[in-house]
Design goal:
By secondary structure, this protein is α/β, with parallel strands linked by helices. The chain has two domains: 195 residues, 3-Layer(aba) Sandwich (Rossmann fold), CATH 3.40.50; 37 residues, no CATH class. The protein is 52% helix and 12% strand. It has twelve helices and nine strands. The strands form two sheets. It has a seven-stranded parallel beta sheet, sandwiched between helices. Strands 2-3 form a two-stranded antiparallel sheet. The longest helix is centred in the N-terminal third of the chain and has 24 residues. The protein is extended. It starts with 5 loop residues before the first helix and ends with a helix. The mean pLDDT is 93.
């Protein structure tokens, strides 16, 4: 067998050096070489779900501690219950569309729904006023008690964050990543606005520091949070807090709590977990008397 000549050896070394350099570049670009904390694709894998949940737990907790957030007044309510001016505009738009095709049942339904929303628009003002009252006397000496907290969205949530914002008080928004992107309302304290992927972690933070729950009229999401809290209180798995249903007429029209007791599926004393309020001052009085604050 003949020995390779000098030219062949040089070419081999050059190809080898090129291959080594290409491999070096591939190493540096490989996802495996990326620090785990920067590897978003890795963190998004289903196997990393426990890590992501822990991050959602720790991030919010640490920001709360940084801002001395001691306790929360959690306000829930429907996204479709908006300020009167906006509700009136929705009615006007629905009626204009119906006028073009008066026999359209879908448009007739849209008018009826928008009018029902307008009839409940006063709840927006009440939530806004309640938040002002709750926020005006309990954020003193750097310690933040009874901090108004919502899901960070529109409607009643916006109203509550807005009330706190208007008196210069810190307030919290625990927003959630949804299929239809929901931007936080503009009244939340920027450093206390969080976005969650997991409903479970979001609910945990609602409950952990809750000193009170005030529930304005709303739909599935509002009912979910209400019954989650009632179940935890019923079973003694969370601290005692007042659970205030705002607007007795609305709540008694959609949920017959008394029937649950009459049917024997809850105890009579479980009805005592619920209070009703009709005015912002009445709601705050229930909370202040429960916690013995001025």
């Amino acid at each position: 067998m003949s020995q390779p000549d000098e030219f062949t050896l040089n070419a081999h070394h050059e190809n080898l050096a090129e291959a080594v350099e290409l491999n070096r570049q591939a190493i540096l670009k490989s996802p495996s070489y990326l620090l785990a904390e920067y590897d978003v694709e890795f963190l998004k894998r289903s196997a990393q779900r426990p890590v992501r949940m822990q991050l959602e737990l720790q991030k919010t907790e640490q920001w709360f501690r940084k801002h001395n957030i001691e306790s929360l007044v959690v306000v829930f309510g429907g996204t479709q219950i908006v300020a009167k001016e906006e509700a009136e505009a929705r009615v006007a738009t629905a009626k204009e569309e119906l006028a073009e095709t008066p026999s359209n049942e879908r448009l007739q339904r849209a008018v009826a729904r928008s009018e029902a929303q307008l009839a409940k628009s006063f709840y927006y003002d009440h939530a806004r006023e309640f938040a002002k009252i709750a926020s005006s006397s309990c954020q003193l000496d750097g310690k933040c008690e009874f901090v108004v907290t919502t899901g960070g969205g529109p409607g009643i949530m916006e109203a509550a964050n807005r009330g706190a914002f208007e008196v210069g008080a810190k307030n919290v928004g625990l927003n959630i990543e949804l299929p239809h992107e929901q931007e936080p309302n503009p009244y939340i304290t920027p450093e206390l606005c969080f976005q969650f992927h997991y409903f479970a972690m979001r609910k945990f933070h609602f409950i952990l520091r809750a000193a009170a729950l005030v529930v304005f009229p709303g739909g599935y999401g509002t009912l979910d949070e209400l019954f989650n809290t009632l179940c935890l209180r019923q079973t003694g798995r969370m601290q005692a807090i007042p659970i205030i249903l705002y607007g007795r007429e609305y709540w008694e029209s959609i949920i017959n709590f008394q029937t649950l007791a009459d049917e024997g599926v809850i105890a009579d004393e479980h009805l005592d977990l619920i209070s009703f309020a009709e005015t912002p001052k009445e709601a705050w009085k229930i909370i202040s008397e429960f916690h013995n604050v001025d």
